[in-house]
Amino acid sequence: MKTQGHGGKNHGSIHQILLLRGLTREARHWGDFPEELRRAYEAQGIDLRVNLVDLPGAGAHSEMISPTSIDAIADFVRDRFRDQLAQEMESGLPKATRRSLVTISLGGMIATSWVTRFPNDFNSVVLMNSSLRGLSKPTDRLRVDQWWRIPLILKERDPETRERRILEWISNRPDRRAEVLQEWVKIQLTRPVSPANLAIQLAAAARYKPNKVPAVPALLLCGRGDRMVSFSCSESIAQAWGAKILHHPVAGHDLPLDAGGWAATMIAEWNSQNFATSASKSSSESVSP
Question: What is the per-residue pLDDT for 274?
Answer without folding.
Answer: 80
